[in-house]
Amino acid sequence: MTFEVLEAAKLSQPVEFLTIKNGTSLWYYTNSSIIEVIGSRTFTPLAYTRTEPVFSKDSSDGQIKFTIPSNLPIIEFYETLPSSFISSVTIERRHRNDPDGGVQIFWKGTVASVKRDGKFATILAVPPTQLSAEVPRYTYSALCNWFLFQDRCELTREQWRHIGTVTTIGTAPQNNIITVDGLRAQAAILAGNVSPSYGTAQQIDDYWLGGYVQTDSGEKRAVYGTDVDGNPDKIRVLQPFRNLEVNDTVQVYAGCDRTRATCAAKFNNQLRHGGFPEIPILNPFTAELPNAAASATTKKRFWGN
What pLDDT does residue 12 have? Predict the structure, then answer.
C-alpha cells in the first residue's frame, strides 16, 4: 500500500515526527511510545497534543497549536533570551503497517508564540503563507540584526563571561534580583582587555546589561537591570529562576545594545556588525531635500553620523 492509501484507511497506524529548529539548535520528538530513528535523526518520545490545521480564509488559516510539557528546552529557549533566528516546525508522518516505510511531510511552518501555563505550554505555529504579510526578520536598520554570540556575530561566548557565586536572592516580588560576587571586578577586567577607552564607571556597571545568566542546571535569564540599589554586583533578570539557591554557581555573559559603537569599543568586532548605521536619516522619497545653496551655507548633514 502507498502512504496515501494508508493515511485514509481506518486501519492505519500513523506515527508522527516533530522537528523544531532554531539556528543550530534542533529538537526531535515523536508521539510514538519508543525512540524512533530516521536516518541520522533520533526522535524522543513525547506526550503532546496538537490541533489539526484548518484551511479557510480567516486569520487562523493553517495554524497548529501544540500542547507540550513546559519543562522542554524549546520553552526555556523562548522564555529567556532573544534569538537571531525564527524557529521552524516540521511534522512528518509514516505508518507502522506500511511495507515501504515511507515518511511524508505533513505540515511545515514557523513558531509564532510560546506560552507557559503551569506544567504545560502552548506553541502556536503558523504556515509560510501567513509570514508573507509580516515584516522581514532582517532589516536595514542602524542596529545589528544579530544578537550577541549568535549567527554572524562569531564571538566565543566563554571569553565574555563571569563565573561567580550567588550571594543573595531577593524575596517575592523581587525574587528576580540576584547578587553575584565579583561581577563588577570581572567587567572591569574584560573591558580593559579590549580597549582602554571602554571603561568608564557607567560602562563597567552596565557591562552585563542585555546579557544573560545561566545556572548549572541550564536555566537562562536575560539581564535587564544592573547596579541595582547601587550595588554593581547586583542585577535584575527578566523573570525569577525556578531552581536557584544562594551559594549556587552561575555564569553571567556580557550584553550588547547592538550599536556599531558598542560592537567596536566593547568587543572589537565591528567588521561583523550586522546593522546599517550609514543609511541616510532623511528619506528623499518622502521628504523635501534642501536646495544646493542652503546646503552650502548651513553645512547641514543628512547621514546618521
Answer: 66
